[in-house]
Write a structure and sequence with these properties.
Helix content: 25-40%
Order of helices and strands: HEHEHEHEHEHEEHEHEHEHEEHEEEEE
Largest sheet: 8 strands, mixed
Bound molecules: pyridoxal-5'-phosphate
Number of helices: 11
Radius of gyration: 22 Å
Structural class: alpha/beta
Number of strands: 17
Length: 385
């Protein structure tokens, strides 16, 4: 063992691959459930896009969470993992007909609708099946989040959701339709949010919108505030479990729920990020003109976040106890952006050493691609190796 890693076992597996610490995943889920016990009206849906590995999904389903899906494929993955359909919500700006039909056939909890044209199509498809689809409207609250621009979703300029000004018109349109039933409002302001003030701003906005609707005698059954709680990428060992208490308490304090309203959350990253590491092997140490490159066999095809969002991941050489040296850690892909970190300290590294890229459980395996005809990375859990 070095740190959390069973090195002897990890050595046996063909790199690169994801390794999931299931003890940490279970502890994280336990921490969520402990907070939920204090808030009867709270319901958490796991955002499947963060990690759709069936072994991970099964544990999350066993912990009692629902599923938040953004595609038909994710609905299929969630159903296959045993999530009950009445705990599945379906979001996304561009739902295709087969995806909507899949949701209808399974009577999912709700479609989070992002436009009038989508509403019309859901109504039409539901009518053909003689069903009534439960719909929530995704409202763009024009609330910023202190996070990377590429993962901000709640600003007026973003493609997501229905503008606040149009909210009542769309609710009226929905109410006039025979095959949809308006059940809630949905929001999601972004991802990797650590400032509780951002969630407070969302709560304040929702409070205003609820008053506005009540003034027009419109009742909302449930509020869905999306996800977005961040994790500590700098300190995966010191802060392995996000501060769920602070997160849920913020909503309990600031959001004015009405009697019998339920409050839904869609947490992805916060559930799975810290339990996963991308394990890879050092191929070569290359001495550049002014620096050393640690070239590993994992690349941006396995974990794209650094290339896509300039995301930071802590990187460790888990095979070496040598004194620290400074490296650029890079992958083998034919793209200059295939860099995991520049000028970081690693224990003196050599060909064959195992390199762990930490906090990679969310948006890692699920975003992997086969660019350069590479194999998709496999995921292994601590339960099975
Ligand atoms: C991605 C997404 C989430 C999950 O976001 P996290 O930052 O991983 O918690 C929740 N809801 C919607 C609609 C999303 O698109």
């Amino acid at each position: 063992m070095k740190g959390i890693f069973p090195i002897d076992k990890l050595e046996q597996i063909q790199t690169p691959y994801y390794y999931y610490d299931m003890e940490l995943l279970r502890a994280t889920l336990h921490s969520i459930n402990k907070e939920l016990q204090k808030h009867d009206e709270f319901v958490v849906h796991y955002a499947v896009k963060a990690n759709a590995n069936p072994k991970i999904l099964r544990i999350i389903r066993e912990a009692g969470l629902g599923a938040d899906c953004v595609s038909g494929g994710e609905i299929e993955a969630a159903l296959k993992a045993g999530f009950p359909a009445n705990k599945i919500v379906f979001a996304g700006v561009g739902k295709s007909d087969w995806e909507i039909n899949l949701g209808l056939d399974n009577d999912i909890f709700s479609f989070n609708v992002e436009s009038i044209p989508e509403l019309e199509v859901i109504n039409e498809l539901a009518e053909k099946k003689g069903k009534v689809a439960r719909i929530a409207l995704r409202i763009n609250p024009n609330v910023g989040a202190h996070t990377h621009a590429n993962i901000t979703t709640g600003l007026a300029e973003n493609k997501f959701g229905i503008a606040m000004n149009d909210m009542e018109t769309v609710i009226e349109r929905a109410s006039a339709m025979q095959n949809v039933r308006f059940v809630g409002l949905h929001f999601h302001i972004g991802s990797q949010i650590l400032d509780m003030g951002d969630f407070e701003a969302l709560c304040n906005r929702i409070n205003e919108l609820q008053i506005q609707l009540e003034n027009h005698h419109i009742r909302v059954e449930n509020i869905n505030v999306g996800g977005g709680l961040g994790v500590d990428y700098q300190h995966p060992n010191r802060v392995p479990i996000p501060d769920f208490k602070a997160y849920f308490d913020t909503y309990a304090r600031k959001l004015k729920l009405r009697p019998n309203q339920t409050l839904h959350f869609e947490l992805g990253r916060a559930v799975v990020a810290q339990c996963g590491s991308l394990i890879s092997r050092t191929l070569y140490i290359k001495e550049g003109a002014s620096k050393k490159f640690c070239i590993i066999d994992a690349g941006m095809t396995d974990l794209i976040r650094p290339a896509l969002y300039q995301a930071y991941h802590k990187i460790e050489n888990i095979s070496s106890e040598e004194s620290m040296e400074t490296y650029d850690v890079v992958g083998p892909i034919c793209e200059s952006s295939d860099v995991f970190a520049k000028q970081i300290d690693l224990n003196g590294s050599h060909r064959g050493d195992l390199i762990a890229i930490r906090s990679a459980g969310a948006y890692g395996e699920s975003m992997a691609s086969q660019y350069n005809c590479r194999r998709l990375p496999q995921g292994y859990t601590s339960d099975e190796i």
